[in-house]
């Protein structure tokens, strides 16, 4: 499941039929997990014949899950496929864990581990009802996750930058001296000026994700191969925003190396420009949406230019 490629089926692919079949195989696997767990919940253990039947049923259920997953062609969208693959992998891994737990525990009573493993399979199987049903929904879901991570990073940095606050105050309190004169643990005035432009860039990242997500929800379609591919391109590049924001945030803590900050800011700016460019040329951005693309492009340039000016003397 994790390594393989889908077979492009000869029959025309029908998304509703796929979801129906996947739901059924996940449900059947959940029921097999219950049967297996109950059979080994109290002595005596099942007979050799019963064990053979049980293991055959479990194996068939898992093979059915994997087979239906393989129906989903790449052409339906790589973002959607990855989410379905992750859910399928969780079901298979859950069943492996449950089997291992049963094999390693004596059949005297139902162990806590066995209960937890059985519940794990149930949970993994229930996930099928929450999966996005097409690539537009999958990309919206991926963008929502990215936005959440970036929001947290922005809030954390804003909190640390509160005027006069010591970023390491919570971990390096010096009781005896009452203060620390170490340059490595606080921001100078020049640092703060540079960092306010970095914050501007981080906020532009948040706004960029918010706007692209809004456009995908309002205008995104998954009706043609071209639309599906454009959505995947957006998700792929947007996935680079959050790691780039994190790298910039880490370099903003004292002692500040202005060149490292400039380098990380430039990386983030370049990712944001790419996101805006891909959004602008895709179907999610009709002419009515071009205003915010232009505005955010300007915000990225404005903050990046200020960062360059602040760090010019370091080059």
TrEMBL record:
Ranges where the Cyclin-D1-binding protein 1-like C-terminal domain occurs? 173-277
The organism's superkingdom is given as Eukaryota
KW Zinc-finger (keyword) present: no
Where is this protein found? Cytoplasm; Nucleus
Kindly state which keywords UniProt assigns to this record, in alphabetical order.
Answer: Cell cycle, Cytoplasm, Nucleus
Q: Which residues form a coiled coil?
A: none
Q: Which residues form the Cyclin-D1-binding protein 1-like N-terminal domain?
A: 22-161
Q: Which InterPro entries match?
A: GCIP-like, GCIP-like_N, GCIP_C
Principal localization reads cytoplasm
Q: Which GO terms describe its cellular component?
A: cytoplasm; nucleus
**A family per Pfam:** GCIP_N
Q: Does the keyword Transport apply?
A: no
The record's PANTHER family line, in alphabetical order, gives: CYCLIN D1-BINDING PROTEIN 1 (PTHR15492), CYCLIN-D1-BINDING PROTEIN 1 (PTHR15492:SF1)
User: Which family is annotated?
Assistant: Belongs to the CCNDBP1 family.
Tell me what this protein is called.
Answer: CCDB1 protein
Give the species: Cephalopterus ornatus (Amazonian umbrellabird)
Native organism taxonomy:
Eukaryota, Metazoa, Chordata, Craniata, Vertebrata
